[in-house]
Amino acid sequence: MAEGAAAVHVIDDDEAVRHSLAFLFESAGLPVRAYESAPAFLRVAAGLTSGCVLTDVRMPDMDGLALQRRLAELGVRLPVIVMTGHGDVPVAVQALKAGAADFIEKPFDDDALLAAVRAALDASRLDRERDAEAERVSARLASLTPRERQVFDRLVSGEQNKAIARELGSSPRTVEVHRARVMAKMGARSLPELVRMALGAGAPAPE
What we know:
Blueprint (H helix, E strand, L loop, with lengths): L7 E4 L3 H13 L4 E4 L2 H8 L6 E5 L7 H11 L5 E5 L4 H9 L4 E4 L4 H33 L3 H11 L4 H8 L3 H15 L4 H11 L6
Parallel strand pairs: 1-2, 1-3, 3-4, 4-5
């Protein structure tokens, strides 16, 4: 598997379960990596930016909930699916409240598990795409001149050209020129698209 590929990271202290799950995912064409414990996974987790985590809840050393908390602390944003045994539904609810993508009860149905994992991988991919778009928008924002940024901030907060001109001590025609430059530099075809860019990049509103 290529480094950085979107893999299913399986964490379970039961070797037979790890082998079974690895075979299932490989047969379905999904890259997979298996770990015998949460600490073993944490040794590589910080460098992961894609994929999903499939972890057992009941494990020695560190259980699935503790692993989930540690991943959040490390800023690892991979979707987490927890595997629970009979009677562990309250634990699964805790995991969901803490941000888990899903939980699967043992013994699990292969099709249901594959569906949950594929949904988590899709969520991870979309998350990466949003991050990449936010980076592109941030780079475009950085290319604006100070005056263009002032116009941008006021445009995305809903102000009209005349109001912007009054605030900046300029003429509506000059604001119109700055607006055109802002739209061109940002690659926005319309004001709604410019607003969506600002929201996606977390651009602050003017004070």
